[in-house]
Specification:
Blueprint (H helix, E strand, L loop, with lengths): L4 H38 L1
């Protein structure tokens, strides 16, 4: 069990990093989309 611990940690780290990146990209896309929707209304 102890020998698998480092691999499990690295794997978990990889998943959390990937989820964090995709969430950041999704949030960024949402902000851009909201700004694109707001802009014609403001103009």
């Amino acid at each position: 069990m102890a020998s698998f611990a480092p691999y499990a940690f690295v794997y978990l780290r990889l998943i959390t990093t990937r989820v964090y990146r995709s969430n950041k990209t999704f949030t960024l896309a949402k902000i851009i989309k909201e700004n694109l929707i707001k802009e014609p209304v403001a103009g």
